[in-house]
């Protein structure tokens, strides 16, 4: 039997956004709430020039929210912005339900989704760093309210201990993370030494990255119509139409207004992206706000100094389009449907882009030089191999990494 879903009231203040943008942000909060395992029972919104410094919403709206909470008896009340420590404290004193903000909600999803040792450590670090300035008065609240969304991860007992203990925990986690990151760097260097061509899937969360990743690599990445379904970078081999193998990595999705501190806590995921030879930017073409999702991802890449990496756009969910679609042509692109298993379209286009990045070669290889031949078959995109009987040699043509030891041979 499924456990009972927690009930949540969602609260948002619109200060200067267009109504559509604000509604989109609230819809996203609703989707995040469902992903975390709660059901939204009410939306409370307010238009203000700026949020109230003490209580986020105005006095009258707070009274309205208090009355609604008494009637609906929610388990938690989720605010659509990051609350300051004093706002959280003031709201918790007035409202009976557990008070959390958008950042805590995202952290809770991270805590549920993280699979690897590194992912779990990163989540715990982000949660402890977030909670440290918010500890005053929180211990009794957490004891009284028990577990649930916003309390997963470090757990109540850690949060009730003194700040020195939590700072010690943070230092310890950072040390352990450095060790794990070093191990990952060793594996990554090994891949580089093996001349593996690396492709990273990036995109706005819930664009269909994991579905496409599974199609392209025959892998079993967690695939669900939920936000942040993937947290830990997952790498698998992918075979292109020519037989050339690339390493494909599925990464965490990005979201608008994701606090920089949360992105920083997932540094290794972003390092995987930074090591890529080609980025596959997956976009949900059927989403009415797909253009803004695209620009959010591109802005984030620019902020992380990753805009120089060659990029190709995959417009997914073509099967859900109800009108003609206009693509952003600033990057090479393909329009497809992962649901219809149209991975061949993507693989063909990926191969074309890989050829633009690699260096073409034309080589004559002696018939008894099996080592070089084997190397070319394994480490290059071999598109032609003919045996010339009169010269007792092979003619090999294809594409190879510019820094490959064989790249300069003729």
Automatic annotation (TrEMBL):
Signal peptide: none annotated. Residues 156-183 form a coiled coil. It comes from the Bacteria. InterPro entries: G_HFLX_dom, GTP-bd, GTP-bd_M, GTPase_HflX, GTPase_HflX_N, GTPase_HflX_N_sf, P-loop_NTPase. Residues 197-358 form the Hflx-type G domain. Monomer. Associates with the 50S ribosomal subunit. This is GTPase HflX. The lineage of its organism: Bacteria, Bacillati, Bacillota, Bacilli, Bacillales.
